[in-house]
Amino acid sequence: MAGLYLYDDSWFEGERRVYTYTNESIGFSDRASALENNDWSAWVVYDDRNFQDRRYCIRGWETVNVLGAPQWKFNDKISSVKRLNSRSCAGYPTFY
Ligand SMILES: [Ca+2]
């Protein structure tokens, strides 16, 4: 299924949730430890609900195997997700 895949554990292990559209408050808050973008569109993930606080953009087909890596420090943080409907990250900070 196309969408943004969030995993409870690093390296795409543990419980998985798939998001196919923008969610201002996900039911998987403060749990994601890895990301897989199985979508052509870029997505933005936010530390807080309602698209607040720290954020990173992941482009289509990119993956992040350890969100807690020192360059991001984003383990168990994500609380809202936004689909950009664009290949581009449009000026948002990116993982890579
Ligand atoms: Ca986790």
If you had to describe this structure to a student in words, what would you say it looks like?
The chain has 96 residues and is mainly beta. It has one domain: Gamma-B Crystallin, domain 1. It is 0% helix and 40% strand. A 4-stranded antiparallel sheet has the order 2-1-3-6, with no helix packed on it. The protein has a 3-stranded antiparallel sheet with strand order 5-4-7, with no helix packed on it. A hairpin with a 3-residue loop joins β1 (3-9) and β2. It starts with a strand and ends in a 13-residue tail after the last strand. The site of calcium ion (CA) has 5 residues, from β1.
Give a quick summary of the entry.
The protein is an all-beta fold. The chain contains no helices and seven strands.
User: Could you name the CATH class?
Assistant: Mainly Beta
Largest sheet: spatial strand order: 2-1-3-6
Shape: globular
The bound ligands are: calcium ion
Low-confidence stretches: none
Helix/strand-derived category reads mainly beta
Strand content: 35-45%
- Please count the beta strands (DSSP E, at least 2 residues each): 7
What's the mean pLDDT score? 98
Proper CATH architecture: Sandwich
Name some characteristics of this structure.
mainly beta; 96 residues; Gamma-B Crystallin, domain 1; 7 strands; 40% strand; binds calcium ion; globular; four-stranded antiparallel β-sheet; 0% helix; three-stranded antiparallel β-sheet; single chain
In terms of topology, how is this protein built?
Elements: E1 3-9, E2 13-19, E3 34-38, E4 43-48, E5 52-58, E6 63-64, E7 80-83
Antiparallel strand pairs: 1-2, 1-3, 3-6, 4-5, 4-7
The chain binds calcium ion.
